[in-house]
Design a protein that fits this description.
Strand order of the largest sheet: 6-5-18-17-16-7-8-15
Mean pLDDT: 89
Number of helices: 30
Largest sheet: 8 strands, mixed
Structural class: alpha/beta
Distance between the termini: 12 Å
Strand content: 15-25%
Shape: globular
Helix content: 25-40%
Number of strands: 44
Radius of gyration: 28 Å
């Protein structure tokens, strides 16, 4: 690294010091637009001209003279007893946004669910919620969901649909025709019981399991080979001292990221335990998990299995055991020193070590199982007995396609899956289903699959339905409806029961099963009614396992068979289809919050792109936004490129979940469908193409909607790091004052503020923050932050009140990453307050920088004077086109209008609510009574809020830590937000 190269950088242009970028960063309010973005038609006079002619006082007078629109309130005719106007009701439930099934609390106001929070009493998710779970409340109010059942595309009554489906299935079963029920791998124990009842009613019926990403299916298949049963074990990262991940993004998208994040940060809390788990990450693409790793090694996709095999060989030698079948696996093009060092550290930790892998290749998971077996970590970091057994008798979707092609199927029912979109043979499914007598889908909308069937029985959303979950064996979560169904929908499991002849509402079926099977295992002295009421209130219950049998034994003879045929010929370029933290597999692709959430690594919004390594891009002449054609076999996609640091030179990455065509007005035609580039090998879908990948660079350009564009720390210590050994020797390591940036000035023109009561402050632990962005979506939900859309996002007009700044350090092909949550710093000497001509931004008596929207006339002077650039200007009235979408708005926070500035308020509405509650209860406000939205949702517990005037508060204690520092102290702005230095356990003795 040259002397002119910055230590930390946000983009390759910033690292290279390109003059055009530097010039652009100086002109904060530049009139020119990014390349490829069309200019809007100008007004007759600009805002700047208007203020020149009229003057600020005239503008303020005009705004003040406008009358607010008249609003009429309709009172309750008969108010429910439990509802008090102005107060929220909370319900414990289980998240249904993905297969992790975390425990949540649902906040309702006037019967409307408006916010999702984590359930602290849930022993698995432990109070955390991911961005997808946060956004699920918006999907409840999706105007593009199906509003009624349909037959042949026309609206139908439920009774008519039930009669036709039941008669059709009974006729097919009587004729001995095959009935196939296509389901996701994870649903919940009572849902599985309903499926079993359906199967018993129709002897020719079988289940088909479909996994859009292939990871759960690959894990289950690997354990079937090595342990004789399909299961997903209970991984315990909090018990590990050394973690080795081969492509598993366990902090972002893999299996249960919320639970794993909580465990991971607990294992790496050096400040609390003075020891820290070491994390190795070998992967082809820069992932959220790789960004947090102590040692990250870019590895080509084709080298993941050989690298795992090389690790297993080394562990087997240390254990004095022979593992058959490894000789056929080629050597990995990974440094032998890396594998030797990794094997040595894992072996030293033994039962306190953990090896995991990602992707959809069962051979890789088999090798990970072998590594864990050699380490002897069963019951410590990997609990097989605590894992979940999956459907043993299920067919694969490839087998179903074979039956459909042979015209052997009489009926197909789809629930919770969308293979017409997410399978490489999805387009062929339409033709195959035409020859099936009865086709049914219970998907919540007429999506790519449901639009192909004859009977559509739309399901409730998880917020409208009963259900249960078992994320860990013996941990049972309940899901309860918190709102009456908004449309004429019905629970999918109730539909299955009715078609099977069970005339029992699903909530009764659920309750009866809990009384018969769960209650006897609960080991409580109360009656069932009390047990049930308490389970519904808490949302989770821990019971005794169904059986006390030992975990299945490891079968070493299976390894050779599993690895047979796993050898591949690496290509010059290799394609990996991956999940983004926000959109995942695309099931919630009509959710604008998730589209507009900046990807934690690329910082891009709205659409997918081809990730290319900097060295590869330089060789091929590829720049950001340049359209490239990537192809495999006869399939080709044209997508914009993004030069992504940390990508292996042979790897290309393309996110799944985009390119939907029948999901709704928000998600339709956003990006390209990457599932079509997946390959089929012996009927199995493989989402990594290790050979035969074509790449053609076109002259076309499509601008990317990037959210982090200032791209320069300008030599200031905004993020600070320390090596573990240095931190243990000196708690202030990495936090030394830099020359020229040494802190506040002793003299000031500010008179200061006196705080006789509370003084609210925030502390952010950079060591704990993984950059998952759950806080960003939580803030958006809490504070009614609008979605601006792809075009406005390209113009850098996003409205998020907080962002996650991502900084690189090191060489472009293998950098390290630091994440820094950035919100309004609520400065003691706030630069924004001195320049506002209408006193729209003022200081409160409790240390908050307040924004008075009714005074603001939109001069943007405050944004110009804000050193951390956290203020947002409302360019438009971002209205909800569908009335139902307005039901998600939080009534405690005003909806802002065009032409005003807005920013983080440290959730002042929550502050006032907490103070009012303490006053009603006649007690003093306690530390922890008030939690900001970003703090409450954080799975990593990286954010702390409280009264810094209270010396016993967490935030006051953290502010006195040796790791504590504040931004831009040399400017004497006095931020109320404290950051804690990031600590890494690289073993190098220094952070660099």
């Amino acid at each position: 690294m040259s002397e002119t190269t910055p230590k930390y950088w946000q983009s390759l242009a910033a690292r290279a010091g390109e003059p055009a970028l530097l010039e652009r960063s100086r002109d904060e309010f530049a009139e020119e637009l990014p390349v490829g973005v069309a200019a809007q038609a100008p007004d007759q006079s600009s805002r700047r001209d208007f203020f020149k002619v009229m003057g600020l006082s005239a503008a303020a007078a005009m705004v003040a003279c406008q009358r607010a629109p008249v609003q009429k309130a309709v009172p309750f005719i008969a108010k429910p007893d439990e509802l008090t106007p102005g107060l929220a009701l909370w319900y414990a439930s289980t998240c249904g946004a993905c297969s992790a099934q975390c425990g949540v609390l649902l906040k309702t106001r006037d019967g409307r669910p408006i916010k999702v929070e984590g359930n602290e009493e849930h022993p698995v998710s432990r109070g955390g919620v991911c961005a997808v779970g946060q956004a699920s409340v918006l999907s409840l109010y999706d105007a593009n969901r199906s509003r009624w059942p349909s037959v042949g595309g026309s609206r139908a009554a439920w009774a008519d649909l039930d009669k036709a489906v039941t008669e059709g299935l009974r006729k097919l079963a009587g004729e001995g025709r095959a009935i196939r029920l296509v389901l996701p791998w994870v649903m919940g124990p009572t849902a599985e019981a309903a499926v079993a009842r359906f199967l018993s009613a129709f002897p020719t019926a079988r289940t088909v399991r479909f996994d859009a990403t292939g990871e759960l299916e690959a894990i289950a298949e690997a354990y079937r080979l090595t342990h004789g049963t399909r299961l997903v074990p209970d991984y315990r990262f909090d018990q590990a001292k050394v973690i080795a991940s081969f492509g598993a993004d366990f902090l972002g998208t893999w299996v249960s990221p919320v639970a794993f994040t909580r465990q991971y940060t607990s294992a790496r809390d050096a400040a609390g335990k003075r020891e820290m788990a070491r994390h190795w990450q070998l992967e082809p693409l820069m992932s959220l998990t790789g960004a947090s790793a102590d040692r990250r090694v870019p590895v080509a996709p084709s080298d993941l299995v050989p690298a795992l095999a090389g690790l297993v060989k080394r562990l087997a030698e240390k254990a004095g055991r022979d593992v058959a079948g490894l000789t056929g696996v080629p050597e990995a093009r990974v440094s032998t020193d890396v594998l030797d060092m990794l094997a040595g550290e894992l072996w030293a930790a033994k039962e306190k070590a953990l090896v995991v892998c990602g992707g959809d290749e069962p051979a890789a998971y088999v090798l990970a199982n072998v590594a864990n077996e050699l380490l002897g970590n069963a019951g410590t970091t990997v609990s097989i007995s605590g894992g979940l057994t999956l459907d043993e008798g299920a067919m694969s979707f490839g087998e179903l396609l074979g039956e459909l092609e042979a015209k052997q199927v009489g009926a197909v029912l789809f629930h919770g899956v969308n293979p017409a979109y997410a399978h490489p043979k999805g387009e062929a499914l339409a033709g195959l289903l035409k020859d099936v007598a009865v086709t049914v889908a219970t998907n919540d909308r007429l999506d790519e699959t449901a639009s192909l069937v004859g009977f559509h029985a739309p399901d409730h959303t998880p917020l409208e339905s009963w259900g249960d979950a078992e994320p860990r064996r013996g941990v049972l979560g309940l899901r309860q409806p918190v709102v009456s169904p908004l449309y004429e929908t019905r629970g999918a499991m109730e539909s299955l029961l009715r078609w099977a002849g069970v005339e029992q509402p699903y909530d009764d079926f659920l309750r009866a099963r809990w009384e018969a099977e769960v209650f006897p295992r609960a080991n409580v002295a109360t009656g069932f009614q009390s047990f049930w009421d308490e389970s519904v209130r808490q949302g989770v219950v821990v019971v005794l396992p169904r059986t006390t049998t030992e975990a299945p034994a490891f079968r070493p003879e299976s390894v050779a068979a599993a690895l047979r045929g796993s050898a591949v010929t690496a290509g010059e370029l290799e394609l990996v289809l991956y999940q983004k933290v926000g959109l995942r597999d695309g099931a919630l692709a009509n959710n604008g919050w998730l589209h507009e959430m900046p990807d934690p690594i690329s910082k891009a919004t709205w659409g997918n792109y081809l990730c290319v390594a900097p060295s590869t891009a330089s060789k091929l002449g590829i720049s950001d936004g340049q359209v490239v054609e990537v192809g495999i076999g006869g399939r080709t996609l044209a997508v914009p490129a993004l030069v992504q640091p940390g990508t292996h030179p042979r790897a290309l990455g393309l996110a799944m979940g985009y390119g939907r065509t029948k999901v709704g007005r928000i998600g339709n035609d956003v990006g390209e469908n990457a599932f079509g580039l997946a390959s089929l090998t012996n009927g199995k879908v493989r989402r990594a193409a290790l050979g035969g990948v074509r790449l053609r660079v076109t002259p076309e350009h499509k601008p990317l909607a990037l959210s982090q564009i200032h791209a320069s720390m300008e030599g200031r210590g905004l993020v600070r790091e320390a090596e573990l050994a240095e931190f243990l020797a000196n708690p202030s390591a990495g936090n030394e004052k830099e020359e020229g940036h040494g802190g506040g000035h002793p003299l000031s023109i500010w008179s200061g503020h006196e705080y006789k009561g509370h003084k609210w402050a925030l502390a952010v632990d950079l060591s704990a923050c993984t950059g998952c962005s759950a806080c960003v979506v939580s803030c958006q939900a809490e504070n009614n932050i609008p979605i601006v859309g792809e075009d406005e996002a390209r113009r850098q007009r996003e409205m998020h009140w907080m962002r996650i700044d991502r900084y690189y350090e090191g060489e472009p092909d293998a950098p390290r990453v630091v994440h820094q949550p950035m919100m309004c710093q609520h400065c003691e000497n706030a630069p924004c307050e001195t320049v506002c001509p209408v006193l729209a931004t003022v200081h409160s008596s409790e240390g908050l920088n307040q924004q008075v929207y009714n005074r603001c006339v939109g001069t943007r002077y405050c944004a110009n004077n804000c050193p951390t650039k956290v203020r947002r200007f409302n360019w438009f009235d971002y209205k909800h086109d569908e009335p139902i979408e307005r039901m998600v708005l939080n009534p405690d926070v005003v909806v802002r209008t065009r032409g005003v500035m807005e920013k983080c308020s440290l959730c002042v509405q929550r502050v006032q609510e907490g103070k009012a509650l303490a006053k009603r209860e006649g007690r003093e406000l306690r530390d922890g009574d008030i939690r900001t939205a970003c703090q409450q949702s954080c799975p990593a517990r990286a954010i702390h809020f409280g009264d810094i005037n209270d010396p016993n508060s967490d935030v006051a204690k953290l502010a006195k830590s040796g790791r504590a520092y504040r931004l831009l102290e040399e400017l004497n702005i006095g931020p109320a937000v404290t950051y804690l230095t990031k600590v890494r356990n690289t073993g190098n003795g220094s952070a660099t």
